[in-house]
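Next comes a concrete protein, fold included:
___
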Amino acid sequence: MNGIYVTGTDTGVGKTFASCALLAAWRANGLRASGMKPVASGCEDTAQGLRNDDALALIAASDPAPAYADCNPFAYAPAIAPHVAARLAQQPVSLDAIVAAHARIDAQADRVLVEGAGGWLAPFSETLSQTDVARALDLRVVLVVGVRLGAINHALLSARAIRADGCALAGWIANRIDPHMPYADDTIATIATRIDAPLLGTLAWNDAAPMLDVHAL
């Protein structure tokens, strides 16, 4: 397993920020590391086609940088749930296409990071789940926890769901998305004692130089 699948406790918890930090940490350790966002909604229509900000950030954080079509093979314009966007566009997500794009990226990299969409149970299509993708690519999962009110419940439920789906939880990242949250350290400590997976690092609000431990990845 030469990579990981990054999911979150919800949408908007900083999966891309954490993913770019993971890619940077791998690269700092001398590894060729590339990112992938197989399915993305909320894409901008450009002269080059639909483009997603998260996918572009992953490409910028990658070395070697993958082609956009490989990084984000399924791009949809509406900023709605991907499975709904795919249905409206009449362009269903294909697991075979994701596997093929991942193989092209993997052939040039030591590590490939695949970022999901929303939380773990957010579907990619009426029949395709994020579990299916992580399993097909043989990837362990890293959970990004948005540290805000409710984070303990969301983190532990997500960890339970990942394991119940037969995937390995390689670690988790605490992302302090609410800079004014009281007792944030207590929340992180509570999760750490109950999640049974290593804490790879804590990201501060607007952290300009995030540090993560990727030695186990």
